[in-house]
Each structure stands twice: as C-alpha cells, then as structure tokens.
Amino acid sequence: MIDQSHLESLYDDYSKGLYGYFLSFTRCDADAADLLQDVFVKLARNPRCLDRVKNVRSFLFRMAHNLAVDWSRRGKSRRKRAEDLAKMPAVLLETDPDTEQFRASLEDALAELPEEQRSAVYMKLWGELTAEEIADACGVSANTISSRYRYGLEKLRTILRPVYDEIKN
Fold first, then answer.
1. What confidence tens digit (pLDDT) does each residue in 52-68 have?
2. pTM for the whole thing?
3. CA 34 to chain centre
4. Ramachandran category for residue 95: left, alpha or beta (phi over 0 → left; psi -120 to 50 → alpha)
5. Which terminus of the chain, N or C, has less C-beta within 10 A?
6. Interatomic CA distance for residues 35 and 33, integer angstroms
7. Number of other CB atoms surrounding residue 38 within 10 Å
8. pLDDT tens per residue across span 87-97
9. Phi, psi (5° rounding) for residue 57?
C-alpha cells in the first residue's frame, strides 16, 4: 500500500531518472513534467499497484515507457517538439561548460534514434536497468532489448564520433 510518505520517497528516488526518460521522448520540459506527474498520479490513485512488484524501478520505467508511447501516439507534431526544444534545451547529463557542445550533440543524436532504440539506450545508460528489466518495461524479450541497445549505441557512435574528435582536438 502506498501512503503519502512512501509516495514522496518514490518520487525522491525515481523522479529524476523518469523525468530524463520522458525528456528524451518529448524534448519538451512541460510535456516531460506532465508525464512524470501522470506516473505519480496513477500511483496515488491505485495505492495497491506496487503490492506485488518485486522491482519498483523496473515497474516505474514500464509505466513511463507506456506513457511515452501513448504520448507519441497522440500525435504530438515533430515541429512542436523542435520549437519547444529551441526554447528549452533538454538536460540529460550534468556537464561542465567545456562539454556543452557534446551534450547538445548527444541530445540531438538521441532524438535521431528510433523510439525503441532510444528507450533501450536511455533505460540502460541513465535508468541503470538491466536488459531483463528493460524487456519487462517494454514488453519484449531481453534479446530484442540487447539488439536495440547495441544498434542504438552503434548509431550514437557514428553520429557523435566527429563531435568527439573535434572536442578532443
């Protein structure tokens, strides 16, 4: 059963990672915040939903994934996302000013990945979920997640290599 203090504790523990995941999809601060709020509203309205959950983090990322997919299906236009991105850049990594160019390039590169690959990469790298936990969250096999993660990383390397080389030199 979720009481007020448990809900607050869940928020403290998981909101940053979930928010970053939503931001990687929406590329809009307001939309990401709305989706994050939806997760915790659902938890508050259904206090027994976590009673049989063994891995809370995995469960919350599954909720986040489902909400992000629903959000995407509702037809938010890519143009609106680009306009919102221009107004407020996403913060996926805490970096010093010298790596700002790489951070911005990483955000753009993540946006270029298909949603399935972006989910796998984000949940693995920033959500720190295992392939099995990601598979559970996305409703596919762990092998499928491993492939999506591998292909996503390959694309990121290809896209980011010139930026990395430029910054390194």
1. 888 999 899 999 999 98
2. 0.62
3. 14
4. beta
5. C
6. 5
7. 16
8. 544 455 454 55
9. -60, -45
